[in-house]
Structure of DUF974-domain-containing protein:
Amino acid sequence: MPRERALSEAKEPHFVILKVLRLCRPTLSTHATAPLPTTPSLPTAPSLLAPIPAEDDTFPLQPLLTLPPSFGNVFIGETFRCCLHASITSELPDGVNVSDVRVEAEMQTPTQKLGLELTGEDARIVEFELKEEGLHVLAVTVSYLQSLAVPPLPESGKTTSIAEKATATIAARERSFRKLYQFTSSHCLLIRTKATLLPSPSPSQSLILEAQIENVSDSPLVLSELTLNGARPAKTLYHNDDGDRAMPLKSRDVVQVAFLVGEEEEGERETKDKGIGQLVLRWRSACGELGVLRTGRLGAPASVVG
């Protein structure tokens, strides 16, 4: 559950309410079932009972969808989307007026602090691509103008007319408060790679790149795309599943793939990067939440001239 803290310049209550909601797809609702007894507790007469079709009461999924509690699981590679809504409370004291409500947001990652662009008018939407593991803090600042209608004081010995009572001096001041929402991002896919050179007399040899992808989360995922982007031509050699369709991965499932990375072109050896390239994985959650994971630049092993 995200931890929320409010920072204010005074203990005077604010007249603006901030609501923050993460925008994400729902999850499948699960339930645990108690095992059925192996023997009936009371004797029955089978000849007097109608046959009852057997039902699988151990199936854990329910025909329901549920929203994640608080921010739920946040994985690296997902785009974190949040809706920020600041509204004026309906219980304003007499003479108090609130206007010019403004909302600002920034994201604090383990290594940097970034301002977020807000879209929309009434409900502001923020988006942030998660690339780092660890604690993240969404900081939201709300500022507004609060004015107070102050009727003029009557002079001594005079009564105040209705017109004078309607005339008021507006005393306006700017107020603000800040709230912090904490959540932790983690990996859902673990990638292991191994590069092996093929014997060749050429200075730029072909090689085999093996990749092993494991679902380290507690939820099922669907690996929809796995590509190798680099300067050298690459061809998929081996796949432990049908490469033409998406690959479902249950928790702790592993998929393996191998690429044949060709030789570098003669005219590009001095200008191109000597590395293999970058693996790009696209995956979706059980209900379709999209994630994109990119590895760093994969380096090639040292050349061995045959």
About this structure: Residues 6 and 179 are 5 Å apart (CA to CA).
